[in-house]
Amino acid sequence: MNSQSQQQQQGKQKSREEEEEEENHLLQSECESIPLSSPHVLPSNWEHADKEEEEEEKDSVYAAKDKVQIFDLESSGAAGSTAVPPFSWRKLWLFTGPGLLMSVAFLDPGNLEGDLQAGAIAGYSLLWLLMWSTIMGLVIQLLSARLGVATGRHLAELCREEYSNWARLVLWILAEMALIAADIQEVIGSAIAFKILSHGLIPIWAGVVITATDCFFFLFLENYGVRKLEGVFAVFIGTMGLSFAWMFFDTSPSEEELMMGLLIPRLSSKTLRQAVEIVGCVITPHNVFLHSALVQSRDIDIRNKGQVQEALNYYSIESSVALLVTLLINLSVITVFARVFYGTEQANGIGLVNAGQYLEERYGGGLFPILYIWGIGLLAAGQSSTITGTYAGQFITEGFLKLNIKKWLRALITRSCAIVPTMICAIVFNTSESSLDTLNEWLNVVQAIQIPFALIPLLTLVSKEEVMGTFRIGPIVEKVAWSVAVLVILVYGYMLLDFFLEEIDGVLFGFLVCLGAAAWISFIVYLVQHSGAIPSLMTRSPNSRGFFSLSGN
User: Fold this and answer.
1) C-beta of residue 515 within 8 angstroms of C-beta of residue 478
2) Per the UniProt record, which residue ranges are transmembrane (predicted)?
3) Which of 19, 54, 172, 553 makes a 20 to 30 Å CA pair with 390?
């Protein structure tokens, strides 16, 4: 029996060896058939796999080698794992970064101008509105991050797939217009800061050129790693925080008035316009597109539900902390100008250009003149927001148009699209402070037109199970999100109505405004109908993941 079993085992081993030799012979003959002039050609199945990897690499916002590695530090489980590891300070540190870049849009020069005018005209009465507007902005930005993490793609890419050709073309054009409008505000804000810090030696147009060129220098830092660029933004935000905190303690605002402004809602017809501007400054359309792309700088396996949920938890924490910092900075600016200019003759005429001069007249020079402290804070706001504007432009352009070109070339194209009109505006409108204020009002109008066409697609996509899978938002959060979106759109709609009622002069201009308003409302109705939001809100069952769920179950 033993000898017979040994013979059977030897026979099986021999047959396996023959099979292996035959496979090796076939593989060798297949490789020999490859022409020597094409050393990188592989068998068909290998070539197909490589092509798929190349396509994924091209479609990815960040190359695999550029992404921050987090989950390879320890075993992260299988692809279908839903387990979420305990909280880790080290992982929170590694996830910290995208929220910093996103939060810069809450501190751009347009926001600072809205803050100082709100403080000068309304005093402390609108601080509560700033706080709640920031909370609404946080909800929108967390939804944007959720979309990017759960799908591995950003909002512009998903809009390209979600909507018909004509709709996505309109969405792209409107997004580009809003981005250019925001960029003009940011670049001119930096140019004003250069003029302040140089004591008038650098004119506005020269400051625009400097800002346009140094933006490429900061973007070049990304070649040394995403974390280096995020560190630069941390320095910018820290600079703003120190500058405006210095001004806050230097002017000694009333603590009692500050707390009353935060806790007691107050609004009057005289301060309604400033209230609308506060809400409008906090929620910006290009930032909605931006955050969904920035979160992809971390290497996350979207097939691993545990990883996705863990990433969402950490991004929620770091985004909340980042926007808390922006809230404190914006509060400082409002309270400083409320303390110094509320109820004065200069209140109605104050803006970015003359704010530093008025502060110097009130508080003089000293060891660190308040004029230059204001200029440093404004410069940090302008420089940082200009860079994030460039990033948003790149993501929007390549997302809607699927442009696979080199990053420096994309930056050149998108930067040129913004800088050329900015240069023209800087030269044309640099005749007086009032002309720059007029320009700023028109730029706010352009951004107000775009905001529904960023919010509605975002809410449409995060509510779809075929897009988000199990990470679609739950029915309660969906209702809250749509309520926030409707409120924001109504606020922007009021801003547009108030602006055009003042500006309409003549039958032709009035007809064009009415025509544009009809088209604006019609497109909003189309997007809402496409989303299926109204029947969804009425019939959705509460079986989806909650927005702030901390477990993968």
Assistant:
1) no
2) 92-107, 127-149, 169-194, 200-220, 232-249, 321-342, 412-430, 442-459, 480-501, 507-528
3) 54
Give the whole-angstrom CA distance, residue 56 versus residue 75.
24
- 545 beta partners: 473
Within a 13 Å sphere around the CA of 395, how many CA atoms are in the beta-carbon half?
A: 30
Q: Model pTM?
A: 0.82
Tokens linked to 177: 């217009």
For the stretch 71-96, pLDDT in tens is 764 445 555 567 788 888 999 999 99
The candidate with the shortest Cα–Cα distance to 109, out of 384, 400, 414, 415, is 384
Contact 396, 174 (CB under 8 A): no
Determine phi and psi for 173, rounding to 5 degrees: -60, -45
> Hey, how many other C-beta atoms are within 10 angstroms of the C-beta on 76?
18
515: CB partners within 8 A, 6+ apart: none
| Helices marked H in 370-474 | 370-401, 407-428, 433-450, 452-462, 465-468
In the chain, what is the straight-line distance between the N-terminal and C-terminal CA atoms, in Å? 56
Note the pLDDT tens digit of each residue in 313-370. 999 999 999 999 999 999 999 999 999 889 888 888 888 888 888 888 877 666 677 8
Left (φ > 0), alpha (ψ -120 to 50) or beta: where does 20 sit? alpha
Q: Which amino acid is at 371?
A: L
- Neighbouring CB atoms inside 10 A of 425's CB total 23
Instruction: Locate all alpha helices (DSSP H) within 67-154, ordered by sequence.
Output: 89-95, 98-103, 109-122, 127-151
Q: Quick one: pLDDT at residue 130?
A: 92
Q: Where are the domains of the chain?
A: 88-532
